[in-house]
Model the fold of this input.
Amino acid sequence: MKKTFKLVFVIVFIVLCSLPLLLMPIFHNDASIEKRELSKLPSYISDGKLNLKFSDEFESWFNDHLPLRSYLLSASNYISGELMQGETSNVIVGKDGWLFFASESRDYMNTNAFTEDQVKAFAVTLSLMEENVRERGGSFTFVPMPNKSSVYGDYMPARYRGSEENNLTRVSAALRDYGVTFTDMRSVMLSHKDEVVYHRRDSHWNYLGALIGYEAIMDSLGREHPDYSSASYTVEKSWRGDLDKLLYPAGGTLDDQYSFDIKHASFTFTEPLSAKSASAQLENYMSDREDHDDFFTSKNKDLTDGSRLYMARDSFGRALLPYMIDSYETASFKRTDCPDLTTIKDGTDVVYEIAERNLSRVISTAPFMYAPLRTGVLTEGLEDGGTIEPVVEKTGYGVRIYGAFPEDADLGDCRVYIQLEKNGEKLVIEAFPIYESKLLGGDGTKGYSAILSKELELSGEYSITVISGGTAYSCPKTEIR
Done:
């Protein structure tokens, strides 16, 4: 009897251990839920050589393709998240069924505070962008989208202590001081929070919040627009939130979504061209599939006023698409946190929308924009800051100059000017006060970055001086070929 029991035990043990492999051909995991590409089955040979990383790559592949993985994750997250109120799968489980992105906690508790110079650099950067747009006949507004915890912090777990001040409040104050036009979406959303303008199970606003936000953006631009405030609507539990998917990939709880009775303008997409109908393509762009939505342009068939929009946006911007398409004859939407102002035509309105949790990206890579020429800038009799060495690159679009200041440098109001001198002739431009983290590496915070148009026809040996905070930093003579 003992031998029979042992034999049965061994067989059951082997079957259980083999079960994942046996089920692999039957069950497949959905990569779209986690919004990443699942690991591929590695090969023993890579680039003609023995793959020394095979064991690690195989483990990653096996973990990603483990049968019933989504059910196991869902069960684990329910225990650690819902029952134990812990942080799991990058999700914070809040009160009364509210979910939050884990990365929001840094803004909520103010543990990632910008330095004073970073706040000033933020405001200067956007002021230069607005100046460029307005000089070319367009309107500009910056749209910082508040994290859900900035509006519904009451539902954050008690262990997270919210702060009255954070990066969003700091940069908002600085934008006012520097005269930058922005949509104070935090105040707008807080004034409507009792109407529930964010999803409980998603990190974004719902369609009611987006409609309210659209009105605020257009008011900030000073542009007349369709009024949808009296549109009727229904509310249905039809929305599967991104946070709910992360927490319960096997299937979770549907959230409320608003459906408005609005007759939108007739339109088509001109770039990229698609075999799909315009409405089907728009539905795709508004979903969280993020399928070929990096850049597209719409043509409103009901408008012939020549109005143009360029909108740099992130995932919050998806819900705004039909309203923006209604408001302009042509509208281009770029999914980026680094706007390109060199490609837009004169008279184009610019909306730069970015989520609060990503505000640091505004000052980690300079927008693609030609630096403005400056006159009357004091360049003589300044304090000597020593020597710094910029990177000077000649490209197809002009000359790019960027570099870093000493971290103890006093940059004053964070305005940065670059003087190029050759044969007694001087050219002064204003640079973005941005440390190009991707290009320079390291963890610096004080830098400068400028693109000079090829129309300036820079060529030859130049003396370069970088000026900021009443201090002049000399640079080695540089040959521009």
Summary: The first strand starts at residue 45 and ends at 46. The chain has two domains: 95-363, 383-480. The domain at 383-480 is CATH 2.60.40 (Immunoglobulin-like).
